[in-house]
Amino acid sequence: MRAALSTATAIVAEDEATLRQQLVEQLGQLWPELDVIAEASDGIQALRLLDDHRPDVLFLDINMPGATGMEVARQANGRARVVFVTAYDEHAVAAFEQGAIDYVLKPISAARLFTTVSRLKERLGTPPARLDAVLDRVAPPAGSRSYLRWINASVGQNLRLITVDEIVYFQADNKYTRVVTGDGAALIRKSLKELVEELDPQLFWQIHRSTLVNARNIAGVTRDFRGRMLVKLKNSDDTLLVSDTYTHLFRQM
Q: Which end of the chain has fewer CB atoms < 10 Å from its terminal CB, N or C?
């Protein structure tokens, strides 16, 4: 059940600290019943807070480091009301005017924010709308490639959000793929083939049909007594087998 109007909750995600503070203060004046339960300074933090707090409303800066407001909105799809905080963009604003997503322009206008607050209060009694159509209209142009920047992985009975920078390597494991980080391992259902297509190939190298390694975590290569090439990892005792197909990646090492 959605929260009552008097106990509506919100997260404010904006990387400019002054603007974030201004937005929180103005919300406090225009909607004193709203509980701003958390603030985020980047998109990855916003994603984690979304999972932790499940707010009624998300105020999202469109251009944030880590993950953009668009990416966070896709994760919030159908789970929360989304309000984008954006510099003026005629194309984007025209799409937002369709109603599924609201917006506040930078610099923040109290009058425009009041309109947004009024709309939110009216809609909180119904489930959040699906955002797919609007997000598709304001998505980056085709041809501008964006790579996977985080994954949701299972650790025991819990889900954990892991950024790709934390990942040391992926390894196929029956129906799952193991995600190995510096502090443990987790499982995802995404196949290695899918990961190869979605990850930045400059950062993640396929070294075996069952293994993808973060190139930044490669300490060097060695060979075992059978002459097979092995990857040595930084800050880890693990070694990863390199199949003959991929030995060319290491010719300069």
A: N
